[in-house]
């Protein structure tokens, strides 16, 4: 029986002077369970371990974490996808302040989301029932609306690490494009002019870490390219 | 909206375009130079001198030099805003880069149009 050796980042700012790694030995009984299941087994051994989770099926986006160096959702990442040998190293999402253990402070991430005005803006008179959209126009939102705001992408992006206060980041930009691409939104110009500074969009260096980690298989880099094209045709 | 007064074109888009355009100009210049060296079998001082006597060559070279300066500024400005978090350090670095690039361009004018 081989035991899984898990090393997890621990930090409680109220009692610890510095973060440290705590080792666990977990018996998975040979089953290929999800990382989140392993975390709950760890919590049985030491219930001071803190992490976020809710839906445990890849829908809510609350258990984004760094598993053996790669960001992802613990609940839909099977051990066979991440474990190297018999070792698993769990860390909080990189680049954000740690509140405790695997729980990070997502305030900056949400601030950037808020900044792109993630709601439809339409200055035309309201129709009596609803604003209609052709199936073709609706298709343009595929690959954009599915984002669950798990922050795996933005916290794997070096540009977001260096400038989380000014660079919107892949997640926010994917959402920005989701509203730029929506035929029912009439504030395209204002949205674009809010993004035309040297940081918000243009800090993207096309590293594509975001694409590599998105648990929903979305492509923020492509959306960022579309925003750049829109900025270009709007300005020339 | 995020603003930053030290960037080149006051907008991310113009910086980005400038970065692309200057890269193309530098590439064309390099290709031209490679082509020139390949086509001239034995390069003499007089041939080299004659080439740089041409007004178009001087303008082309000057354009490339300005492109190098713009490209370097945008690139180094970006790097400095990524990695230099202390304002003082960043300002000193940026001033140094501007000064150096300015000197190179003026020097280039002197080389191209001087005696
Ligand atoms: S492609 Fe852009 S947004 Fe995505 S990780 Fe790279 S720099 Fe960040
Ligand atoms: S784009 Fe993907 S990785 Fe980024 S927040 Fe949305 S779902 Fe998560
Ligand atoms: S717990 Fe909801 S996405 Fe993992």
Automatic annotation (TrEMBL), chain A:
Q: Biological process (GO) annotations?
A: respiratory electron transport chain; tricarboxylic acid cycle
Under the heading InterPro entries, the entry gives: 2Fe-2S_ferredoxin-like_sf, 4Fe4S_Fe-S-bd, 4Fe4S_Fe_S_CS, Beta-grasp_dom_sf, Helical_ferredxn, SDH/FRD_Iron-Sulfur, Succ_DH/fum_Rdtase_Fe-S, Succ_DH/fum_Rdtase_N
- So which cofactors does this thing need? [3Fe-4S] cluster; [4Fe-4S] cluster; [2Fe-2S] cluster
Domain 4Fe-4S ferredoxin-type: where? 137-167
PANTHER family tied to this protein: SUCCINATE DEHYDROGENASE [UBIQUINONE] IRON-SULFUR SUBUNIT, MITOCHONDRIAL, SUCCINATE DEHYDROGENASE IRON-SULFUR PROTEIN
NCBIfam families to which the protein is assigned, alphabetical: dhsB, PRK05950.1
List the protein's name. Succinate dehydrogenase iron-sulfur subunit
UniProtKB/TrEMBL annotation, chain B:
Q: Which organism is it from?
A: Terasakiispira papahanaumokuakeensis
Q: Name one Pfam family in it.
A: Sdh_cyt
Q: List this protein's GO terms for biological process.
A: cytochrome complex assembly; tricarboxylic acid cycle
Cofactor info, note text? The heme is bound between the two transmembrane subunits.
- One GO cellular component, as annotated: plasma membrane
Give the lineage: Bacteria, Pseudomonadati, Pseudomonadota, Gammaproteobacteria, Oceanospirillales
| CDD domains linked | SQR_TypeC_SdhD
- Where is this protein chiefly located? membrane
Q: Where in the cell is it found?
A: Cell inner membrane
Named cofactor requirement(s): heme
Q: Which pathway, per its entry? A: Carbohydrate metabolism; tricarboxylic acid cycle
Cross-referenced SUPFAM superfamilies: Fumarate reductase respiratory complex transmembrane subunits
| Identification of the protein by name | Succinate dehydrogenase hydrophobic membrane anchor subunit
Which keywords label this protein? Answer: Cell inner membrane, Cell membrane, Electron transport, Heme, Iron, Membrane, Metal-binding, Transmembrane, Transmembrane helix, Transport, Tricarboxylic acid cycle
Q: Which is an annotated GO molecular function term of this record?
A: heme binding
InterPro entries in the cross-refs: SQR/QFR_C/D (IPR034804), Succ_DH_anchor (IPR014312), SuccDH_FuR_B_TM-su (IPR000701)
Known role: Membrane-anchoring subunit of succinate dehydrogenase (SDH).
Q: How does it sit in the membrane?
A: Multi-pass membrane protein
Report residues binding heme.
71
The transmembrane residues are: 21-39, 59-79, 91-113
NCBIfam families listed in its UniProt record: succ_dehyd_anc
Coiled coil start-end? none
Binding positions (a ubiquinone): 83
